[in-house]
From TrEMBL:
It is found in: Cell membrane. Residues 22-167 form the Casparian strip membrane protein domain. Homodimer and heterodimers. This is CASP-like protein. Its main location: membrane. The gene is LOC105032025.
């Protein structure tokens, strides 16, 4: 990058803007991938177990239990929150070439703040239920279920990790958006 009289040339500025734009797109794609992964893994999370409940003579009585994400409102909210964040990230990526710079930055910034809170709250709600499923609550006499539905809990853990990664990436994107907006406002003064 050439510097002339302490000021960057237009070529250097364009190069920095292009690199920053590419970085933002890559971060947005990573956030999209993380939230889509969390949505799909949790939405398809289901495990069925059959156990012998009793014997009548020599015939066993089989009881079938199913663990599904739809049975827990926190997991349903988790899926919806990550799906909304995925849709938001996809819209931002698709509309990027068609929006004016200022309108796009403001839309991205405000939407980013909302998406960070939505994904983080969905992940936190699901994490609280996951902890309850793993350890139970002795005071309320709620037994843990992860010792019986281990695959269900493992897939739920993967979805939680993906969601927290997505929330972190959205937080980074929102931070970069805030800095960019601040620099643009400061340069106009």
């Amino acid at each position: 990058m050439a510097i002339e009289n302490g000021n960057e040339t237009k070529v250097g500025y364009r190069h920095k803007a292009r690199v920053l734009g590419l970085l933002l797109v890559l971060l947005r794609l990573a956030a999209l991938l993380a939230t889509v992964t969390a949505t799909i893994v949790m939405a398809l999370n289901k495990q069925t177990k059959s156990i012998t409940a009793a014997f009548v003579g020599t015939n066993p009585i089989i009881q079938t239990f199913t663990a599904k994400f739809q049975q827990t409102p926190a997991f349903v909210y988790f899926v919806i929150a990550n799906a909304v964040a995925s849709l938001y990230n996809l819209l931002v990526l698709l509309l990027r070439p068609f929006m004016k710079r200022k309108a796009h930055e403001i839309f991205e910034h405000l939407g980013g703040m909302v998406m960070v809170s939505v994904v983080a709250s969905g992940a936190a709600a699901a994490a609280a239920m996951a902890e309850l499923g793993k350890n139970g609550n002795l005071h309320a006499r709620w037994n843990p279920i992860c010792n019986r539905f281990d695959a269900f809990c493992c897939r739920g853990g993967v979805a939680l990790i993906a969601s927290f990664i997505g929330a972190s990436l959205l937080m980074i994107l929102n931070t970069v958006s805030t800095i960019t907006l601040y620099k643009n406002v400061a340069s106009q003064d």
